[in-house]
Amino acid sequence: MTQVVWDNAQDTAFKATFPEFVAVPFERTSLLFDMAQCTLLDNTDGSPVMDACYRTHLFYLLIGHLLLIYGMAPTTPDNTPPGRLSSATEGTVSSNFEYIIPQGSMSAPWYLQTKYGAMYWTATARFRSALYVFNGGSGIGIARAYGAAPFDIPGGI
Question: Fewer Cβ within 10 Å of end Cβ, the chain: N or C?
Fold first, then answer.
């Protein structure tokens, strides 16, 4: 399987995809790519995302998310509040932000703070579950996870 490598070509493609980050230096995006591949998205042969093109776009979303989370994007102030603006008032300035926690997920709120993270979370939903295919009356089935080759489960269910 091909690994995604962050070089000048990838940086240029990232900034063409998300022009709001065009002023971000290569060193910053490269550092965030390294952080993302070490902690958030596996970039090895064992990655659940086998398609390198798909994984590349997921890294773009992660880098955009990290730039906003850490306040490292030149056009974004460092005091960006987490969550989405749910209500605002103008007289005597009032605003409310909602931080929705999906059922059964402790990681989702961190991703849902930015539009890039929310898109990443949505795009990776299929990699956060496994599919069990029942194989007839024998009770022996096949487990398929992340598009990997099937393997037999001894003894079935």
Answer: C
pLDDT tens across 121-136, in order?
Answer: 989 988 877 655 555 5
- Smallest CA-to-CA distance from 67 within 107, 22, 128 is with 22
Distance of alpha carbon 131 from alpha carbon 148, whole angstroms: 11
Mind listing the pLDDT tens digit for each residue in 84-135? 667 777 888 877 777 666 666 778 878 888 889 989 998 998 887 765 555 5
Q: What percentage of the chain exceeds 90 in pLDDT?
A: 35
Residue 39 has phi, psi (to 5 degrees) of -120, -25
Sequence-ordered strand ranges (E) for 34-119: 84-89, 94-98
Q: Using CA atoms, how far apart are residues 117 and 107, in angstroms rounded to an integer? A: 11
Contacting residues for 69 by C-beta, under 8 A, at least 6 apart: 113, 114, 117
pTM: 0.70
Residue 119 in tokens: 């898109």
DSSP string, 28-46: HHHHHHHHHHHHTS--STT
